[in-house]
């Protein structure tokens, strides 16, 4: 394997992305509590894995068909914080959908980010189609698509992986395994220990990695992306992460998540661990880390101000455009 | 000009569009070496090869879902669902994804794809090789729904569908694949969507139909002519967009409308036609609207007497014409 150890500079950039995602995420929860936005679904606890996968991609070149938790990934693919918040506030400038979709249903065409849907798993066959077109047209772009472990029970997941195996598609399927699908625990979702165990059944490569460990995740993601780009086909990459929050702003997880488990979640938070690790490695100084954190916070503040002041969409946007060719 | 069959019209459209535009690919099961179970793609695999004619795994949701992805990444897929009866697992990808993608991205991601499916009964196919599914899909905003009734239209409408930047469900009356014959002009081009066709002008009443029922409507109109009734037949061609103006104009001319469709009567496509006529041409009506459609049982049964009892055909349409004529 080629040397895929990230440089100190890259590690700092990775930390910065994780922090930006976290600070923005935290702001969204506050905005929801304040009644200013109608909904939020969080990526907290998934950031290390998401940053790792994002940095393994050629960002802006490769294609991303994400799911609703992938805040760090879409930021990493160039989506400005303000654009995310315009969606949360339902404002006209929302580049995902112009205020049509619920928050966190990201779409960012300039970064090759495809539109997140609500029915879980539908992005999988579509990602296979993106990869198929890439393969047929002789392109070198890799398709990365993401899904929660619970959603791997959907038929679309299996159908897509069959295509991936049969056609050796240039794709990485990232399963962000946080062990819950809303309240349903993983053991009621599958009778196996690791989602990646399924890979053999489709004839794709399967890898599981500790998604709370950014460096390990980056190594695994980088191998998967490089393999896909070099014609080696699809990897089913399971990142074992933690859902640090309730499922969404509409969920009360105390009903189904034992108090002790919730209390222990803090220990799983990948960010403090990453911070300490990077400082210990010398990739980051305490001062540099603090600077990154402060910069992220002022970026959030500015984005928040901008989005909240932005105009709502005109009523006509409720009606269309429905068909291509009838745009105003 | 020698007559051709409806399936030949389909095949010619695919062939010519694939030759014209290398972005056009076909995805489906048994469409490769086999040439499709109805031979719609016969010869195309040999001509265009495995990178243009792709045999898919037997997984309908992904046939459509993969098509959506390919369409969003520069290709123009024509996805074949082997029988319309098996499209239901793909409903989510069609209605929730393909049809909504343009709207939900504020116009950033069009989905230029066609989903072809043979539909309809009369071939001894029983419950699961006979279904008419158009009403379910015509109800979905963002999806065009097209049903050709002649070989020339099969070719011209399919060409239009392939060049359209929207997802189009292209339903082919499979009983008519070889039964419906007619000329296809050498230079047959695109037939525009949203333009119904008066296939038989008449003064006494209008029969609105599409697909196989249009074929039967022409037969019924011939029989009615022998009884001195001058029946106008309108072929809708496209269910979405619907040529409402064309439909209403015909009904205003004749003052009577018989709506013929092979689907179950209840909440079928004909109910929409009836509603539009009642809303917009009420004062022109000299008789109540009449729908001739299938009963509200699941689908055409296999056994011949049962199938015949279930499916509306020329006899049922002629009976309806007589009823309306008496007003
Ligand atoms: C087809 C479908 N069924 C149900 C839902 C409601 N729903 C939204 S997220 C979710 C759980 C998904 O869990 P998982 O795939 O593990 O992802 P996670 O949220 O844990 O990241 C459910 C049931 C949905 N959005 N789509
Ligand atoms: Mg989960």
Describe this structure in words.
The complex is a heterodimer of chains A (328) and B (327). Chain A has a single domain (8-310), classed as Rossmann fold (3-Layer(aba) Sandwich), CATH 3.40.50. Chain A has 328 residues and is α/β, with parallel strands linked by helices. The N and C termini of chain A lie far apart (52 Å). Chain A is globular and about 50 Å long. In chain A, strands 1-2-3-7-6 form a 5-stranded parallel β-sheet, sandwiched between helices. Chain A has a two-stranded antiparallel sheet with strand order 4-5. The mean pLDDT of chain A is 97. Helix content of chain A is 44%, strand content 10%. In chain A, a hairpin with a 2-residue loop joins strand 4 and strand 5. Chain B is α/β, with parallel strands linked by helices and 327 residues long. Chain B folds into 2 domains: 3-183, Thiamin diphosphate (ThDP)-binding fold, Pyr/PP domains (Rossmann fold, 3-Layer(aba) Sandwich); 197-325, 3-Layer(aba) Sandwich (Rossmann fold), CATH 3.40.50.920. In chain B, the strands form 3 sheets. In chain B, strands 3-2-4-5-7-6-12 form a 7-stranded mixed β-sheet, with helices on both faces. A 5-stranded mixed β-sheet of chain B has the order 9-11-10-13-14, with helices on both faces. In chain B, strand 4, helix 4 (91-104) and strand 5 form a beta-alpha-beta unit. The longest helix of chain B has 15 residues, at 6-20. Chain B is globular. The model of chain B has no long low-confidence stretch (mean pLDDT 98). The chains are: A alpha/beta (328), B alpha/beta (327). Chains A and B meet through helix 5 and helix 6 of A and helix 3 and helix 4 of B. Magnesium ion is lined by residues 148-150, 178, 180-181 of chain A.
List keywords for this structure.
heterodimer, A: 328 residues, alpha/beta, Rossmann fold, five-stranded parallel β-sheet, two-stranded antiparallel sheet, 11 helices, 7 strands, globular, B: 327 residues, 2 domains, seven-stranded mixed β-sheet, 14 strands, binds thiamine diphosphate, binds magnesium ion
């Amino acid at each position: 394997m080629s040397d895929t150890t990230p440089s100190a500079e890259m590690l700092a950039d990775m930390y910065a992305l994780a922090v930006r995602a976290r600070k923005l995420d935290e702001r969204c929860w506050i905005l929801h509590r304040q009644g200013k936005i109608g909904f939020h679904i969080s990526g907290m606890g998934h950031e290390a894995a998401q940053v790792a996968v994002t940095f393994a991609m050629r960002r802006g070149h490769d294609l991303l068909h994400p799911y609703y938790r992938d805040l760090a990934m879409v930021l990493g693919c160039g989506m400005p914080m303000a654009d995310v918040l315009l969606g949360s506030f339902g404002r006209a400038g929302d580049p995902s959908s112009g205020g049509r979709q619920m928050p966190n249903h990201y779409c960012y065409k300039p970064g090759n980010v495809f539109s997140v849907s609500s029915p879980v798993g539908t992005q999988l066959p579509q990602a296979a189609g993106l990869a198929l077109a890439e393969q047929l047209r002789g392109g070198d772009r890799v398709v990365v698509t993401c899904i929660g472990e619970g959603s791997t029970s959907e038929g679309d997941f299996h159908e897509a992986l069959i295509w991936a195996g049969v056609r050796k598609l240039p794709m990485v399927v990232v399963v962000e395994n946080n062990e819950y699908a809303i309240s349903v625990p993983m053991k009621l979702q599958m009778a196996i220990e690791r989602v990646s165990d399924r890979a053999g059944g489709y004839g794709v490569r399967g890898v599981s990695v500790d998604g709370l460990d950014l460096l390990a995740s980056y190594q695994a993601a980088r191998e998967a992306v490089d393999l896909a780009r070099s014609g080696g086909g699809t990897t089913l990459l399971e990142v074992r992460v933690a859902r640090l929050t309730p499922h969404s702003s509409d969920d009360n997880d105390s009903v189904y998540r034992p108090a002790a488990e919730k209390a222990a979640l803090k220990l799983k938070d990948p960010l403090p661990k990453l911070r300490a690790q990077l400082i210990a490695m010398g990739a980051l100084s305490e001062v540099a880390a603090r600077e990154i954190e402060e910069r992220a916070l002022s970026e959030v503040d500015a984005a928040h101000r901008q989005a909240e002041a932005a105009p709502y969409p005109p009523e006509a946007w409720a009606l269309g455009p429905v068909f291509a060719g009838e745009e105003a | 000009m020698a007559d051709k069959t409806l399936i030949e019209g389909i095949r010619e459209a695919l062939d010519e569009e694939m030759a014209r535009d290398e972005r056009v690919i076909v995805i489906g099961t048994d469409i490769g070496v086999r040439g499709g179970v109805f031979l719609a793609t016969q010869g195309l695999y040999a001509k265009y090869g495995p990178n243009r004619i792709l045999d898919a795994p037997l997984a309908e949701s992904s046939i459509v879902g993969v098509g959506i992805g390919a369409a969003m990444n520069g290709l123009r897929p024509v996805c074949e669902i082997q029988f319309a009866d098996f499209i239901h697992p793909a409903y989510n990808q069609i209605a929730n994804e393909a049809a909504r993608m343009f709207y939900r991205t504020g116009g950033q991601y069009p989905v230029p794809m066609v989903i072809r499916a043979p539909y309809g009964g009369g071939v001894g196919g029983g419950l699961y090789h006979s279904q008419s599914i158009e009403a379910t899909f015509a109800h979905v905003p963002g999806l065009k729904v097209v049903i050709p009734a002649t070989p020339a239209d099969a070719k011209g409408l399919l060409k239009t569908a392939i060049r359209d930047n929207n997802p189009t469900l292209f339903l082919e009356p499979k009983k008519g694949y070889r039964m419906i014959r007619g000329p296809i002009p050498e230079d047959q081009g695109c037939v525009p969507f949203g333009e119904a066709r008066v296939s038989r002008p008449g003064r006494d009443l209008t029969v609105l139909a599409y697909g196989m029922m249009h074929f039967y409507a022409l037969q019924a109109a011939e029989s009615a002519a022998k009884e001195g009734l001058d029946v106008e037949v309108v072929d809708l061609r496209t269910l979405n967009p619907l040529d409402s103006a064309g439909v209403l104009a015909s009904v205003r001319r004749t003052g009577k409308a018989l709506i013929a469709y092979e689907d179950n009567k209840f909440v079928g496509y004909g109910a929409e036609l009836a509603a539009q006529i009642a809303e917009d041409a009420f004062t022109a009506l000299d008789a109540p609207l009449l729908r001739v459609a299938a009963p509200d049982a699941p689908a055409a049964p296999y056994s011949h007497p049962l199938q015949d009892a279930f499916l509306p055909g020329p006899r049922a349409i002629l009976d309806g014409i007589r009823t309306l004529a008496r007003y």
